[in-house]
Specification:
The complex is a heterotrimer of chains A (206), B (177) and C (418). Chain A is of the alpha/beta class. Helices cover 34% and strands 9% of the residues of chain A. Chain A has 7 helices and 4 strands. Chain A has a 4-stranded parallel beta sheet with strand order 1-2-3-4. Chain B has a domain at 3-111: Beta Polymerase, domain 2, CATH 3.30.460. Helices cover 19% and strands 22% of the residues of chain B. Chain B has helices at residues 2-13, 45-54, 120-130; strands at residues 22-23, 36-39, 62-70, 81-89, 94-102, 108-110, 133-135. In chain B, the strands form 2 sheets. A 5-stranded mixed beta sheet of chain B has the order 1-2-5-4-3. A two-stranded parallel sheet of chain B has the order 6-7. In chain B, helix 3 links the parallel strand 6 and strand 7. The longest helix of chain B is centred in the N-terminal third of the chain and has 12 residues, at 2-13. Chain C has a single domain (62-416), classed as Cytochrome-c3 Hydrogenase, chain B (Orthogonal Bundle), CATH 1.10.645.10. Chain C is built from 18 helices and 8 strands. Chain C has helices spanning 14-17, 62-66, 74-79, 86-101, 107-135, 139-160, 182-204, 209-215, 223-228, 233-237, 245-248, 278-301, 321-326, 328-338, 382-387, 390-394, 401-409, 413-417, and strands at 21-26, 38-44, 47-54, 169-170, 173-174, 349-357, 360-368, 376-380. In chain C, the strands form 3 sheets. Chain C has a 3-stranded antiparallel beta sheet. A 3-stranded antiparallel beta sheet of chain C has the order 6-7-8. A two-stranded antiparallel ribbon of chain C has the order 4-5. In chain C, 56% of the residues are buried. Classes of the chains: A alpha/beta (206), B alpha/beta (177), C mainly alpha (418). Chains in contact: A-B, A-C, B-C. The A-C interface holds A 44-48, 50-52, 54-55, 58-60, 71, 73, 85-86, 88-94, 96-98, 100, 120-121, 123-126, 133, 143-144, 146 and C 1-7, 28-31, 35-36, 56-61, 64-65, 76-77, 79-80, 83-84, 86, 127, 142-143, 146-147, 149-150, 153, 163-165, 413-414. The structure holds iron/sulfur cluster. The site of iron/sulfur cluster has 11 residues of chain A, from helix 3 and helix 5. Residues 47-49, 85-86, 112-114, 119, 143-144 of chain A line the site of iron/sulfur cluster (SF4).
Chain lengths: 206, 177, 418
């Protein structure tokens, strides 16, 4: 890492400039800056939310701007599982198996109303919130979440990485306790109070 | 109306069944939707189906859909399950609905997979969701629900939110995964 | 590893299959399975000897839910059925409901529904062709398809306020008229955006030697088999089955005299291929997009004026939102229509209504006991019925053809399992 000590980035040649830039950023923001921009997601896309995730990965919203375009469909090569869509009782064992196959450190985004709570499907077959059976780091609201929300969720994972680095999920415990601050002048209500389902209350959104 | 001819052909061939066409729905002003159904006893279903497929005037080459209705709480229903065969003729462009009524405790209907291959999965689905057995089906297994579930979810006595199947899993947490 | 039981990949031994057979589990979580399908393939070297599809990994109880939601509410759930073209499901559901109620729609509502239905078809085919390209290794086609889909998302968002869970129809009409200038945007899309996209697709797919060789002669099904297996939609038409509900059982603007003043049915052609292979399905879908564009242009040119909901006398229409907010009669009327102990009053009976959805005949078989909700809401899902033929199509082919054939059937998991 001697290069970082050299001071001002050289101005000639594209490759060196960009490397210098990156090294400079790492120098200023720490190694977690680099880590948070190289998340490899694994889309566990089951239903409609998966289509919206594909839209985010495609040209207009361009997930690559956040360094997370390298979708890997093998759990062993990825570190961010995005559960997009409802998970039903036949699928849940598959989800758990895939989660256990992922290597540490790993993060999970529960995308959409269905994955987080069951959504409109309060029926016999749909699991009412995957967080009852697998750990979840970030919940995305919406049915489906708009692409902007999905990007915001990805940035929430990036914030976790920035703050905590690449600690394994057992050391990480129950999330960062990060809550979005309301804009100035807005008073927040009392919230939902204690929730009974799992540790949803102590594992706040975003 | 072409389907009238098809029904006439069925009535000529099976006079003893007393096949009487009825409209599926009759509106308040006395009109109906033009969709007709006939009732067929379960033990004669295969004959009727084969005739309906092959006869010149019927020509129901395609089984458009196969489903079942649980008439448990239905007003004035005499039988519990009605298996509904929706027949479609591509050449004559008409439709006809056949209904076969069966009852607990052992609802059994002969399988029409030998006549229309497209009945294979719909029959499995009805078996899965209603618990009606199709005699002669090549591979009658559950199709939508996981194996190991006892109930048949679309029966009317099964609650919408299930009997706790959706909660019966072992959670993984961050420490043990 | 601690895990719950329930999912076990099948592990057959060599003794069961002979020496050189082996089993490959394909899915349920696999990038090329378009959702959640599980194929159990028995292989002899690279050749597929036997294929057993397992489905139900997305069975969420749609039909049970249909017995507990009223006729207007359930449209929200139909959005989630075929999520590549949700608006077609909306139209199909309310086509069936109106058959049960015996309602005749207003001309403007018919025109709007026709337009959105054909937009949905374009949307679905774009995704299907893009995914087909992706499945045989062409990422570019996928990106191109999605680019043009965004245009339709924008149009639908202007119309209903959501990108794809649109819930646009109501019993007896649609939720609101289109905003000013919307039809011009649609025309602009159809004239300026879509034709180059279809040309690009043609250049990328059917003049691409690799794509053609991977699709031609693969997954063939004959005309008679296609009928006997109950196939519908582009899959059947690629085998030469002349069947399109828009022509055979005309509804909406495909019917002569749809505006009540003798307007002729819209003029379009139903593309048919005779080869019955994957390439045939691709070509049929490409041509259907062009025909859909033609249909929409004609409808927009003859767009009638008037209300988009049936008159209140028919006793099914929800009142206009302005009335609800600004007059007490409107508010009372609204409550009468949505309260669980009042609501709509359908006749006792059963009805089947179907439309030609992008994947084939999408119908609903409704049973009503006169109550507020359907007694039984059966959906005839084209994906489910088309998918059962898959083992027939794939057996004897190479393993690399598995995804090519799967892509050409356009199986949507949520519609497959409901
Ligand atoms: S949250 Fe909505 S869009 Fe996402 S999977 Fe569920 S129903 Fe579909």
């Amino acid at each position: 890492m001697g290069l970082t000590e050299q001071g001002a980035p050289a101005r000639s040649g594209i490759a060196t400039t960009r490397l210098d830039y990156a090294l400079d950023m790492i120098h200023r923001h720490g190694i977690n800056w680099a880590r948070k921009h190289s998340l490899w997601p694994m889309p566990f896309a089951t239903a409609c939310c998966g289509i919206e995730f594909m839209a985010v990965a495609a040209s207009r919203y361009d997930l690559a701007r956040f360094g997370a375009e390298a979708c890997r469909f093998s759990p062993r090569q990825s570190d961010l599982m995005i559960v997009a869509g409802r998970v039903v009782m036949k699928m849940l064992p598959v989800l758990q198996r895939i989660y256990t196959q992922m290597c540490e450190p790993k993060w999970v985004i529960s995308m959409g109303a269905c994955a987080s709570t069951g959504g409109v499907f309060d029926t016999y077959a749909v699991v009412q919130g995957i967080d009852q059976f697998v750990p979840v780091d970030v919940y995305l609201p919406g049915c489906p979440p708009r692409p902007e929300t999905i990007l915001e969720g990805l940035m929430a994972i990036q914030r976790i990485v920035r703050e905590e680095g690449v600690r394994s999920s057992s050391e990480r415990g129950h999330g960062l306790q990060m809550v979005i601050e309301p804009p100035p002048g807005v008073e927040m209500g009392p919230g939902f109070g204690e929730r009974s389902l799992g540790d949803r209350a102590s594992n706040p959104v975003l | 109306m072409a389907v009238a001819e098809a029904i006439a052909a069925l009535q000529e061939r099976f006079p003893e069944l007393g096949l009487a066409p009825q409209p599926l729905v009759r509106y308040a002003d006395g009109r109906d939707s033009g969709q007709l159904w006939v009732r067929v006893p379960a033990d004669r279903l295969l004959e009727v189906a084969r005739f309906a497929r092959d006869d010149e005037r019927c020509r129901f080459e395609q089984l458009c859909d196969l489903t079942c209705v649980d008439y448990l709480n239905y007003p004035d229903a005499a039988d519990r399950f009605g298996v509904v065969y929706s027949l479609l003729s591509l050449s004559q462009r008409h439709r006809l609905w056949l209904k076969v009524f069966v009852n607990d405790p052992e609802p059994v209907v002969p399988s029409v997979t030998r006549i229309w291959k497209g009945a294979e999965w719909p029959e499995r689905e009805v078996f899965d969701l209603f618990g009606i057995r199709f005699e002669g089906h090549p591979d009658l297994r559950r199709i939508l629900c996981p194996e190991g579930i006892e109930d048949h979810p679309l029966r009317k006595d099964y609650p919408l939110r299930g009997r706790g199947e959706r909660e019966a899993f072992v959670p993984i947490d961050r420490e043990t995964a | 590893m601690s895990m719950a039981t329930g999912y076990e990949p099948s592990l057959h031994t060599a003794a069961e299959f002979g020496e050189d057979r082996w089993t490959l589990n394909f899915g349920p979580q696999h990038p090329a399975t378009h959702g959640t399908l599980h194929l159990q393939l028995e292989l002899d070297g690279e050749r597929v000897v036997k294929c057993t599809p397992h489905i139900g990994y997305l069975h969420s109880g749609f039909e049970k839910l249909g017995e507990h939601l009223n006729y207007n509410q359930y449209v929200v759930v139909t959005d989630r059925m075929n999520y590549c073209s949700p608006i077609c499901n909306n139209v199909a559901w309310h086509t069936a409901v109106e058959k049960l109620f015996g309602i005749e729609l207003t001309p403007r509502c018919k025109a709007l529904r026709t337009i959105v239905q054909e937009l949905g078809r374009i949307q679905d085919h774009l995704l299907c062709l893009g995914a087909q390209a992706l499945d045989v290794g062409g990422l570019t086609g996928f990106l191109y398809g999605f680019n043009e889909r965004e245009g339709i998302y924008d149009l639908l968002e202007d119309l209903c306020g959501a990108r794809f869970t649109v819930s646009y129809t109501r019993v007896g009409g649609v939720v609101r008229d289109c905003p000013d200038g919307w039809t011009d945007q649609v025309l602009h899309y159809l004239r300026e955006v879509l034709p180059p996209a279809i040309r690009d697709f043609e250049a990328l797919l059917i003049r691409n030697r690799i794509f053609v060789e991977r699709c031609q002669g693969i997954g063939v099904i004959s005309h008679d088999d296609a009928i006997n297996w109950s196939l519908t939609g582009p899959v059947a038409r690629a085998s030469g089955v002349k069947r399109d509900l828009r022509k055979d059982e005309p509804y909406l603007c495909f019917e002569d005299g749809w505006d009540g003043r003798g307007a002729p049915a819209v003029d379009f052609k139903v593309p048919i291929a005779t080869t019955g292979d994957v390439m045939g399905r691709v070509l049929v879908r490409l041509e259907e997009m062009r025909q859909s564009a033609r249909i929409i242009e004609q409808v927009i040119q003859r767009m009638p004026d008037g209300p988009v909901m049936v008159l209140p006398e028919q006793d099914v229409a929800l009142p206009d939102k302005r009335e609800i907010y600004f007059s007490i009669e409107g508010l009372i009327h609204h409550f009468e229509k949505i309260m669980t102990n009042k609501g709509l009053e359908p006749p006792v009976g059963e009805a089947y209504g179907a439309i030609e959805a992008p994947n084939g005949e999408l119908g609903f078989y409704l049973v009503s006991d006169g109550g507020n909700c359907a007694y039984r809401a059966r959906c005839r899902p084209p994906s489910f019925i088309n998918y059962q033929v898959y083992p027939v199509l794939i057996e004897g082919h190479q393993i690399s053809d598995v995804v090519a054939v799967l892509g050409s059937l356009n199986i949507i998991a949520a519609e497959l399992d409901r």
